[in-house]
Amino acid sequence: SAVISQKPSRDICQRGTSLTIQCQVDSQVTMMFWYRQQPGQSLTLIATANQGSEATYESGFVIDKFPISRPNLTFSTLTVSNMSPEDSSIYLCSVQGSSPGANVLTFGAGSRLTVL
Amino acid sequence: DAKTTQPPSMDCAEGRAANLPCNHSTISGNEYVYWYRQIHSQGPQYIIHGLKNNETNEMASLIITEDRKSSTLILPHATLRDTAVYYCIVRAGWNTDKLIFGTGTRLQVFP
């Protein structure tokens, strides 16, 4: 399965600033997904990022707040803009595997953001 | 996608089998059942998936009822390292996108 590296692994940010999280995959993948996990909660899908097209956002998430780039088949970034304490979460990147007939995702270790 | 229902928490003694149930009564014919787990402070890890037959791999076994409305993940000999949140997810296969996570079952394995 793919190996995913996320940077930063954790950060402490000031309210009103923005932070960009990077996701690097060791193989080419078509679909990349960004999830958010708020403290003590399950994972919530933010958006799907395909190379060469705009990201598709889930209900409750907008591009102005969470702009995503997908410049090639191995890399994506998620920016958390104009942060507030409510944005304190773990942000996870995931990619779809190649197992035929099934949708097996591999996840990065996550980026833990704390907003003060 | 069909929704799933899992108990919020379970306990299991180390060395014993852990049986984690999942209800998915609205599952449709082309939807797979997936299990993932998330150990504290890590990203979710894929465990196993199945369509209608029972499945086994090096990590676990998946038992799906004949009507496919429920399934059970079995960890045959639970260890302390199996303490995690276990997510049961139902999703169509074949190049479909996104997995939607429910609330999962927090499994605590005790010595």
Describe the protein:
- Chain A is an all-beta fold.
- In chain A, 0% of the residues lie in helices and 51% in strands.
- Chain A is built from no helices and 11 strands.
- Chain A has strands spanning 4-7, 10-13, 19-25, 31-37, 43-50, 56-57, 68-72, 75-80, 89-96, 105-107, 111-115.
- In chain A, strands 2, 4, 5, 6, 9, 10 and 11 form a 7-stranded mixed sheet that branches. A 4-stranded antiparallel sheet of chain A has the order 1-3-8-7, with no helix packed on it.
- In chain A, a hairpin with a 5-residue loop joins strand 4 and strand 5.
- Chain A is globular, with a radius of gyration of 14 Å.
- Chain A starts with a strand and ends with a strand.
- Chain B has 111 residues and is mainly β.
- Helix content of chain B is 0%, strand content 47%.
- Chain B has no helices and 9 strands.
- In chain B, strands 1-9-8-3-4 form a 5-stranded mixed sheet, with no helix packed on it. A 4-stranded antiparallel sheet of chain B has the order 2-7-6-5, with no helix packed on it.
- The radius of gyration of chain B is 13 Å and the shape is globular.
Biggest interface and residues each: A-B, 25 and 26 residues
Q: What order do the SSEs of chain A take from the amino end to the carboxyl end, as H and E?
A: EEEEEEEEEEE
Query: What is the quaternary state of this protein?
Result: heterodimer
Instruction: Report the structural category of chain A.
Output: mainly beta
Question: What spatial form of chain B do the alpha-carbon principal axes imply?
Answer: globular
Unreliable sequence segments of chain A: none
- Helix and strand content put the structural class of chain B at mainly beta
Cα-based radius of gyration of chain B, to the nearest Å: 13 Å
- Would you list the SSEs of chain B in sequence order as H and E? EEEEEEEEE
Helix content of chain A: under 10%
What percentage of residues of chain B falls in helices of 4 or more residues? Answer: under 10%
The radius of gyration over CA of chain A amounts to: 14 Å
